[in-house]
Amino acid sequence: QMPQIFFQDDPDFRIGFAFADGMIRRGVHFHPWHNMFMNAAMTAADIDFALDQADAAFGEVRANISKIEPHPVLMALMKH
Q1: Half-sphere exposure of 62 (CA within 13 A, CB side)
Q2: Roughly what angle, to the nearest 10 degrees, separates helices 14-25 and 44-64?
Q3: Which burial class, exposed, middle or buried, applies to 72 when counting CB atoms under 10 A from its CB (0-12, 13-18, 19+)?
Q4: How far does Cα 21 stand from its chain's mean position?
Q5: What share of the chain in percent tops pLDDT 70?
Q6: What is the pLDDT of residues 32-63, one digit of tens each?
Q7: Distances (CA, A) of 19 to 25, 44, 78
Q8: How does DSSP assign 27-67, residue by residue?
């Protein structure tokens, strides 16, 4: 099964985009609206790294949630 992450009370996906951006800036490929794929080549260290970065990205989102703006590209796509 391929997981996809959504956040409660995030109708315009601004929180999801902020989390994905935080993960990408921390070196973990993460897509804000597409299913994720598991990679059997990941080591235990890779998984630990990704989880540590997720904790940091969640913390950043939590600390800045009131300042997160809608993502302009997604907003343009949603208008069509």
Answers
A1: 6
A2: 130
A3: exposed
A4: 6
A5: 94
A6: 777 777 788 999 999 999 999 999 999 999 99
A7: 10, 22, 19
A8: T----SSS-----TT--HHHHHHHHHHHHHHHHHHHHHGGG
DSSP 9: T
The amino acid occupying position 67 is K
State the burial class of residue 57 (Cβ atoms within 10 Å of its Cβ: 0-12, 13-18, 19+).
buried
Amino acid symbol at 40: A
φ, ψ (nearest 5 deg) of residue 77? -65, -35
